Amino acid sequence: DGSSLVYILDSELEEELFLLASKCSVVLCCRVAPLQKAGIVALIKNRTDDMTLAIGDGANDVSMIQMADVGVGISGQEGRQAVMASDFSMGQFRFLVTLLLVHGHWNYQRMGYMLLYNYYRNAVFVLVLFWYTLFTGFTMTTAISDWSSVMYSVIYSAVPTIVVAILDKDLSRRTLLKYPRLYQSGQQEEGYNPRLFWLTMADTLWQSAAAFFIPLFVYWKSDIDGSGIGDLWTLAVVLLVNLHLAMDVVRWTWIVHAAVWGSIVATFIVVIIIDCIPILPGFWAI
Q1: How far apart are the C-alpha atoms of 21 and 244, rounded to whole Å?
Q2: d(CA 79, CA 66)
Q3: Which domains does the chain have, with CATH numbers?
Q4: Which Gene Ontology terms describe the biological processes this protein takes part in (predicted)?
Q5: Among 86, 109, 113, 149, which residue has the fewest nearby CB atoms (within 10 Å)?
Q6: Model's pTM, two decimal places?
Q7: What is the DSSP string of the chain?
Q8: pLDDT tens digits, the chain, 286 residues: what are they?
Q9: Contact at 8 Å (CB) between 228 and 275?
Q10: Dihedral class, residue 54 (left if φ above 0, else alpha if ψ from -120 to 50, else beta)
Q11: CA atoms within 13 A on the CB side of 21
């Protein structure tokens, strides 16, 4: 209780309390002051790498909510101080199950995949430039126009990334609530870890090489110029990364379809427009 914590917190007894609490399934603290609540959270937070979550509904829970990695406030009869200090707010305590098991799982899977995919789509584009540099003997020329380099992260591949990161769901709400153990995928780092990162980087090597050398050898004996082959490399990379994303999408909606296929169409249109402007390098390359 609070009286005991007065002598335990901020003393050499903290470590003993932590070791004892670590062996228990549940630890209950009663009649605890606001700063003592925050001290309990700090006790766990400072001694482990685990994420801490604090949930409260009143002003006396604000310190605890702010100390935790994730703070959840319940809007109730005790005012909105806890809600204002929290990361998430809800109307009832029972919604915590949905927040963790459903939205927590969805967001972890989305964030894990999007981190890997963003590494992938940017690495493929950069490696195409790298292969060009090696192939031309480190000349000062560029394979892709400056405009296409800018548009790649703005128009060509940005919208599908954002849409899928918001809307994609690997499992249904009913399945996640029925099988709570699926939440462990985040705790066990199944969606993002060093192994997946290096596998993704290895994937970018051969895919970027294919995107560079296939158009090059197909048009090897033609009279296509540097700007023309640069446009082909741009289109190849955009097709590659968007098709890669499309193969990984689990939940297709009309918005996802519009974002993925619309970005490919938009790339062709923008490349043609850029090549039709006389003042830009690569004029009439298409």
Answers
A1: 47
A2: 17
A3: 2-93 (3.40.50.1000), 97-275 (no CATH)
A4: phospholipid translocation
A5: 149
A6: 0.81
A7: -HHHHHHHTTSTHHHHHHHHHHT-S-----S--HHHHHHHHHHHHTT-SS--EEEESSGGGHHHHHHSSEEEEE-BTTBSHHHHHSSEEESSTTHHHIIIIIIIHHHHHHHHHHHHHHHHHHHHHHHHHHHHHHHTTS-S--SS-HHHHHHIIIIISHHHHHHHHHH--SS-HHHHHH-GGGGHHHHTT-SS-HHHHHHHHHHHHHHHHHHHHHHHHHTTTS---HHHHHHHHHHHHHHHHHHHHHHH--S--HHHHHHHHHHHHHHHHHHHHHHT-TTSTTTT--
A8: 778 888 777 777 888 888 888 888 888 888 888 888 888 888 888 888 888 889 888 888 888 888 888 888 888 766 677 888 888 888 888 888 888 899 989 999 999 999 999 999 999 999 998 998 888 888 777 778 778 888 888 888 899 999 999 999 988 999 999 998 988 888 888 889 999 999 999 999 999 999 999 988 888 887 777 777 888 889 999 999 999 999 999 999 999 999 999 999 999 998 888 877 766 555 444 4
A9: no
A10: beta
A11: 16
Which structure tokens are listed for 9? Answer: 């917190």
Residue 130: CB partners within 8 Å, gap ≥ 6?
208
Residue that has been written with the tokens 């995928």 in this structure: 185
